[in-house]
């Protein structure tokens, strides 16, 4: 069985040294044991933070050119190991291997991007009447990087790359039940020429290892992706030291189909973003609002798409959708579907596990389409994090925008229309950090990503992602 070691102070910690606390990682496609992992403790987190603090003295003084070279080297090393990392990702998380590969390779792209972006950390010069002001941006210090299981490599890369490019060092805490690929990613990065202790990984429970990383006075910055409830508690704990926090939290994203939309393209986009990764995406399509006039045509097209996916073990190259990540995720999805049906929704497709021997041991679930949804149902209000697409009709754009904004979340929102004015007015009115117009993805490496309202605080990616690891300093020179 594969053994996953923690990485502390430039050294792989053999399982035996991690004490007798071990966890077994299971494949969600068949519940077979995949790996054994050491379960770290608060003490391991402290040692890693201290190592990162020592390494910061060196790394923060390294030139951005040199840091860039090392980040490019790291990207190359991740690409060289991408097959192995992708396979681990499929085995621990369930997603099809082709998507696991894309995730790992795009993480290498993030490293390449910040290798260059780090060099553009320019200062400013301000001329006063009897003084001059210089404005500098300097690395914050040691960062704690805490990530979830749905995109364990990519979401960590969004933090690791700008953190290192800014001159910060880090301790990463990958998700407890899917730590394998994320740890291998950091290992590849750490071997690219970083000082020992600049990149650390500690495994273990969020409430223990994660809490130590957040509470310790050594960490000056917390970058967290995960549930809104966890983000809230992290923000409260970070308040003790007024730490810098970036929070990428839950979503409940609306998808508006206007009467003038290209219905085939809209249905294909909605199906892909509602069902891929089994709906376990923070920017998943969670609520679909259809203009009355096109509701019937859109619904028929969406159901056909939902029923066209091939489902199975992620290792099968033909498969589009793997299992859900865990029993708990599937239980929650079933419960949300049952709640909707009790409250008057109509089941058009799915709503249950697929039948057959191949599906018996895994956490499989069919892509599910629900008609006649309304805002009393959990599927329209809470984050299901499952492959469910509920449909609701609207009569006017005002109604559509108001329904879309009727949520405590505000991560992404989508609109399909062929009219530019409708698109722009909707984009201005929708309360979300990312708006997709005729596109079902709001992630772009060069653009800011993050949430409004309870979906988060701060931005990742682009130059915003780099600024999140910097403090601003004003130096005033007297000229009197
Ligand atoms: P989670 O909040 O349960 O866990 C995320 C990480 O936080 C894990 O590593 C966990 O061990 C750790 N953790 C838990 N309690 C902690 C504590 N008290 N202190 C410090 N760390 C702690 O989330 P999850 O179930 O792994 O992931 C799913 C959630 O992530 C969904 O809500 C999803 O929307 C969200 N998500 C958001 C984005 C985004 O960019 N906005 C992206 C992906 C996922």
Please, could you describe this protein's structure?
The protein has two domains: 2-249 and 455-475, Aldehyde Dehydrogenase, Chain A, domain 1, CATH 3.40.605; 253-444, 3-Layer(aba) Sandwich (Aldehyde Dehydrogenase, Chain A, domain 2), CATH 3.40.309.10. 38% of the residues lie in helices and 23% in strands. The mean pLDDT is 97. It has 15 helices and 23 strands. The chain starts with a strand and ends with a strand. The protein has 480 residues and is α/β, with parallel strands linked by helices. Bound molecules: nicotinamide-adenine-dinucleotide. Nicotinamide-adenine-dinucleotide binds next to helix 7 and helix 8.
The major beta sheet can be summarized as: 7 strands, mixed
* CATH-assigned fold name of the largest domain: Aldehyde Dehydrogenase, Chain A, domain 1
- The general outline is globular
Top CATH class of the largest domain: Alpha Beta
By CATH's scheme, which homologous superfamily of the largest domain applies? Aldehyde Dehydrogenase, Chain A, domain 1
Number of strands: 23
Q: Give average pLDDT, whole number.
A: 97
Q: Do you know the CATH architecture of the largest domain?
A: 3-Layer(aba) Sandwich
- The SS-based structural class is alpha/beta
Number of folding domains?
2
- Uncertain stretches: none
Number of DSSP helical runs: 15
Oligomer: single chain
Percent strand equals: 15-25%
Can you list the ligands bound to this structure? Answer: nicotinamide-adenine-dinucleotide
Gap between N and C termini: 71 Å
Radius of gyration: 23 Å
Across the major sheet, the strand order is 15-16-17-14-13-19-20
Estimate the helix proportion, in percent: 25-40%
């Amino acid at each position: 069985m594969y053994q996953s070691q923690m990485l502390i102070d430039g050294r792989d910690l053999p399982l035996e040294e991690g004490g007798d606390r071990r966890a077994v990682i299971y494949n969600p496609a068949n519940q077979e044991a995949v790996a054994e992992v050491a379960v770290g403790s608060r003490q391991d987190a402290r040692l890693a933070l201290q190592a990162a603090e020592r390494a910061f003295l060196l790394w923060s003084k390294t030139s951005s050119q040199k840091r860039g070279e090392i980040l490019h080297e790291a990207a190359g090393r991740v690409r060289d190991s991408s097959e192995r990392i992708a396979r681990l990702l499929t085995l621990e998380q369930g997603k099809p291997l082709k998507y696991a590969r894309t995730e790992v390779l795009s993480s290498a792209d993030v490293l390449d991007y910040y290798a260059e972006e780090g060099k553009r950390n320019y200062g400013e010069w301000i001329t006063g009447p009897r003084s001059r002001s210089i404005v500098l941006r300097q690395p914050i210090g040691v960062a704690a990087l805490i990530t979830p299981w749905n995109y364990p490599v990519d979401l960590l890369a969004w933090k690791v790359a700008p953190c290192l490019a800014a001159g910060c060092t880090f301790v990463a805490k990958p998700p407890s039940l899917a730590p394998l690929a994320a740890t291998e990613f950091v290992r590849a990065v750490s071997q690219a020429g970083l000082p020992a202790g600049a990149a650390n990984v500690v495994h273990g429970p969020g409430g223990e290892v994660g809490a130590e990383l957040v509470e310790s006075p050594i960490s000056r910055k917390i970058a967290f992706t995960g549930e809104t409830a966890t983000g809230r508690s992290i923000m409260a704990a970070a308040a003790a030291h007024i730490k810098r926090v970036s929070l990428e939290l839950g979503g409940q994203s609306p998808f508006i189909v206007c009467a003038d939309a290209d219905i085939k393209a809209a249905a294909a986009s909605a199906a892909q973003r509602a069902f891929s990764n089994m709906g376990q995406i923070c920017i998943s399509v969670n609520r679909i609002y259809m203009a009355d006039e096109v509701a019937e045509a859109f619904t028929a097209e969406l159901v056909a798409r939902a029923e066209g996916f091939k489902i199975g073990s992620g290792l099968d190259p033909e498969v589009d959708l793997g299992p859900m990540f865990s029993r708990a995720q599937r239980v929650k999805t079933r419960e949300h579907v049952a709640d909707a049906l009790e409250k008057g929704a109509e089941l058009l497709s799915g709503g249950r596990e697929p039948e057959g021997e191949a599906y018996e041991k895994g956490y499989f679930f069919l892509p599910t389409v629900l008609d006649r949804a309304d805002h009393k149902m959990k599927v329209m209000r809470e984050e299901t994090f499952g492959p469910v697409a509920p449909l609701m009709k609207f009569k006017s754009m005002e109604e559509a925008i108001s329904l879309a904004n009727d949520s405590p979340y505000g991560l992404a929102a989508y609109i399909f229309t062929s009219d530019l004015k409708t698109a722009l007015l909707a984009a201005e009115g929708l309360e979300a950090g990312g708006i997709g117009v005729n596109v079902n993805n709001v992630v772009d490496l060069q653009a800011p990503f993050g949430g409004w309202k309870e979906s988060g605080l701060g931005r990742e990616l682009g130059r915003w992602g780099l600024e999140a690891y910097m403090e601003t300093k004003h130096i005033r020179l007297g000229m009197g």
